[in-house]
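In response to the reviewer comment on reproducibility (Comment 2.3), we provide here a single inverse folding case reported in full, input and output, so that an independent group could reproduce the run without further information from us. The structure tokens appear first.
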């Protein structure tokens, strides 16, 4: 059984995302129950992961230091923890677990 795209863990939010690097523009969308991140940075020397943290920090209204890639730091599929997010982005629908 596939894990949900997002779930709560106390005050934190855990996201399962699929990342596309070297995109024409940076964008976050929810498609077919999966969170998709498109970022401009290449997956070299951690640049893509830094761009992911920056994009999510703007979206959830938290400093990038409160975003941690827990699984998949070198993979396209990642599990990301956002510590006590302040905002609920428009692209993330109100889900029972979120």
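Designed residues, in position order:
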């Amino acid at each position: 059984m596939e894990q949900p795209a997002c779930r709560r863990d106390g005050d934190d939010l855990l996201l399962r995302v699929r990342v596309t690097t070297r995109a024409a523009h940076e964008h976050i969308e929810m498609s077919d129950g999966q969170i998709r991140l498109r970022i401009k940075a290449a997956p070299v020397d951690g640049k893509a992961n830094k761009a992911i943290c920056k994009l999510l920090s703007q979206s959830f209204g938290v400093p990038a230091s409160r975003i941690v890639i827990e699984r998949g730091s070198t993979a396209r599929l990642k599990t990301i923890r956002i510590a006590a997010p302040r905002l609920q982005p428009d692209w993330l629908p109100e889900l029972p677990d979120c």
